Amino acid sequence: MPRRIITYSRNVFLPLTTVCHNRCGYCSFRTPVTEGCILPPPQVEDTLRRGAALGCTEALFTFGERPGLEPGFSGVLEKMGYRDILDCCFDLCEKAIGFGLLPHTNAGILTLEEMERLSRVNASMGLMLETTAPVPAHRNSPGKDPSVRIGMIEDAGRLRIPFTTGVLLGIGERMDDREESFMVIRDLHKKYGHIQEVIIQNFCPKDNTPMAGCSPVSPEEICLAIRIARDILPDEVAIQIPPNLADASMLIPCGVDDLGGVSPLTIDYVNPEHPWPQLRELARLVGDAELRERLCIYQRYIEKGWYPPRLAPLISHLNQMIHQRSDRSAEG
User: Fold this and answer.
1) CA 216 → CA 173, 204, 206, 225, distances in Å?
2) What share of the chain is helix, strand, coil (3-state, %, to 5)?
3) How far apart are CA 19 and CA 82, in angstroms?
4) How is 226-278 classified by DSSP, letter by letter?
5) pLDDT tens readout for residues 63-98
6) Residue 65: how many CB atoms within 10 A of its CB?
7) Is 202 exposed, middle or buried (0-12, 13-18, 19+ CB in 10 A)?
8) Cβ(69)–Cβ(21) under 8 Å?
9) Which residues pair with 163 in a beta bridge?
10) CA–CA distance from 115 to each of 41, 201, 311, 322 (Å)?
11) Which of 140, 225, 227, 273 is deepest in the core (most CB within 10 A)?
12) Cβ distance 33 to 22 under 8 Å?
């Protein structure tokens, strides 16, 4: 029987701003508008430079959803020379490419036109569906309307963008809501073929949030959700868990294929209290399986040519680099 393969990506995490128009009941990432609420481009460039030196291949750009709708944000952004946060993101994606990292952007809800523009400088993109259920945690978050999120994931399919989505467990949804979420994702992938991976992420209670006192889901419940997802989703769609939030060694046998982006440099800014495992630790977590590095764009989409032509030389170079790393690791 062939040895199981568990993949991961080596990345840097770049939260361009924590200002957000949503008010989710579980979130501690969001902050108010201040003079320092945007990550300065020189700091981003320094992180990109250091990440490239450490062998990272992915630059994960993320920020709060529609920060420009928050009073005062546009004024702070204009002082940096930008009209919109997406303009800033586009420029920094180009910087990432220049440093030799493939951009992957998760910017919350975007229009088809905005996604099309960002797809010119991104190898892949993402948006968490979270849940198809209308949960109280999303009551004050217009961007978390399930129909809006499903619509954006469908637009990504129309644009042939290699895409990551996922569900968030423990925010008020039921098990049948999770099944429905997986079925929606399955149907979108059957129609467009663009879903690379589905993240199954467990909600971690945060102090000073409305849901601080809520109990997280148990490992057994996470395992059950993974098994349900594996039954529903096509085999080619990877199931991912964040190894800093859940016990990967316990959950991998449930049907996990991927451990997502793991950084040797930057923290998980959404869950800063949960440090990434060291890259060497990942090999222990996967047990008897083979740990294999990947790019943020999966190989089947590289073969299909689902990426901007300008990224072709970089994708080829990074693919060769990670294969050489894998060969050296096998020899060692």
Assistant:
1) 12, 6, 11, 14
2) 45, 15, 40
3) 16
4) HHHHHHHS-TTSEEE--TTTS-HHHHGGGT--EEEEE-SS---SSSTTSPPPP
5) 999 999 999 999 999 999 999 999 999 999 999 999
6) 22
7) buried
8) yes
9) 125, 195
10) 21, 24, 17, 28
11) 225
12) no
State residue 308 phi and psi, 5-degree precision. -65, 140
**215, 166 Cβ separation under 8 angstroms:** no
191: burial class by Cβ within 10 Å (0-12, 13-18, 19+)? exposed
pTM above 0.70, yes or no: yes
Q: Which two tokens stand for residue 109?
A: 């809800």
Minimal CA–CA distance to 185: which of 111, 237, 144? Answer: 237
Nearest to 233 by CA among 177, 328, 166, 147: 166
Phi, psi (degrees; rounded to nearest 5) at 296: -70, -15
Write the CA distances from 301 to 196, 264, 291, integer angstroms: 9, 26, 21
Mean pLDDT of 179-203: 98
Joined tokens for residue 246: 């859940």
> Which amino acid, one-letter code, is at 309?
P
Q: Please, which residues have CB within 8 angstroms of residue 262's CB and are 6 or more apart in sequence?
A: 8, 9, 10, 11, 243, 276, 277, 279, 282
Instruction: Write down all domains in the chain, each with its CATH number in brackets.
Output: 5-331 (3.20.20.70)
In Å, how far are 14, 44, 211, 267 from 40, measured between CA atoms? 11, 6, 31, 17
Q: Is the dihedral of CA 274, 174, 184, 131 positive or negative?
A: negative
Positive or negative: CA dihedral 253, 254, 256, 257: positive
Longest dimension (CA), the chain: 60
